[in-house]
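User: Could you go from structure to sequence for me? I need the amino acid at each position, not a summary. Structure tokens:
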């Protein structure tokens, strides 16, 4: 007769039969508990495997997040560098504008001085032109006066009044006027 299983035949003795039934009942309960423990162990093993996979997945996500963070830090660093370069370029451009404005102001002052100088030269030329015209008028008037007196005096008298020969005096007067005008122009 088997100790832990069903027996087809129980003993004829009622006390032994009771003990055999109790033992069989305990054996079935133990087997049931063992089956539950095996099932629980199998379930725990599956859960453990899932947690390992989940931990590996989390570690992979962490690695990916760290890589993304490094990528973002690199992009941030590049952006900061570009920003600093843009600030430096802006400052350089501002200095260039200031220098160009100062140069423009200096050129404007120089232009104004040149305009004033030109106006001064123009006024001086006009004055000198008037002086030359006056001299020429005086010379022409004297010459006309000399020509008018020629008809009343003899050539010798006129030479003594003017101080020399008519042609020589007229040539000196014209040369002097042209020379004075040419030298002053």
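Assistant: Here is the amino acid at each position, in order:
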């Amino acid at each position: 007769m088997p100790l832990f299983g069903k027996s087809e035949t129980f003993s004829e003795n009622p006390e032994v039969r009771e003990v055999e039934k109790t033992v069989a009942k305990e054996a079935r309960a133990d087997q049931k508990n063992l089956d539950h423990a095996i099932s629980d162990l199998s379930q725990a093993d599956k859960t453990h495997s899932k947690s390992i996979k989940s931990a590996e997945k989390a570690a992979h996500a962490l690695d990916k997040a760290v890589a993304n963070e490094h990528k973002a830090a690199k992009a941030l660093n590049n952006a900061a560098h570009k920003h600093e370069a843009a600030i430096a370029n802006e400052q350089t451009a501002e200095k260039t504008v200031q220098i160009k404005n100062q140069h423009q102001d200096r050129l404007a002052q120089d232009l104004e001085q040149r305009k004033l100088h030109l106006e001064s030269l123009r006024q001086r030329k006009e004055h000198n032109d008037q002086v030359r015209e006056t001299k020429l008028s005086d010379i022409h008037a004297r010459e006309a006066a000399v020509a008018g007196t020629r008809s009343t005096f003899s050539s010798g008298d006129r030479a003594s009044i003017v101080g020399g020969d008519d042609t020589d005096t007229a040539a000196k007067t014209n040369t002097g006027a042209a020379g004075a005008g040419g030298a002053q122009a």
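One structural detail worth keeping in mind: The longest helix spans residues 14-150.
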